[in-house]
Amino acid sequence: xxxxxxxxxxxxxxxxxxxxxxxxxxxxxxxxxxxxxxxxxxxxxxxxxxxxxxxxxxxxxxxxxxxxxxxxxxxxxxxxxxxxxxxxxxxxxxxxxxxxxxxxxxxxxxxxxxxxxxxxxxxxxxxxxxxxxxxxxxxxxxxxxxxxxxxxxxxxxx
Length: 158
Known about the structure:
single chain; mainly alpha; Arc Repressor Mutant, subunit A; 2 strands; globular; HTH_MarR-typ; MarR/SlyA-like; DNA-binding transcription factor activity; DNA-binding; DNA-binding MarR family transcriptional regulator
């Protein structure tokens, strides 16, 4: 196995381990990591159109319509016509969805603490630069950029 193949294998293994751990933590809430991510984004930035949500989610295929359908059917999200553009459909959290988003955030803290312990002393700047380089000129690079910009704006806004 060469270094590139090993690097790819490690990335895939880390992504699977991350999903497994987060899904295990969220199982008592009855939602998946993808559902939690969508609810947390809607709770924080909503209401959003399906396209706007898609640009912020790292979802399979980049289109979250089935994910949103499941959230709406479960009563965690709702679709409504925009107040300023009747052609635009906006998705937002229901009160139950907002409550679930906050609970998911709390449950996911155990994963964050574990990962922080795993990474103690690691050079995250260099690792982040390598990962960003791998994503250059991909749609997911734009997703990461948009999420980073929104998070920075949240930090600046009092």
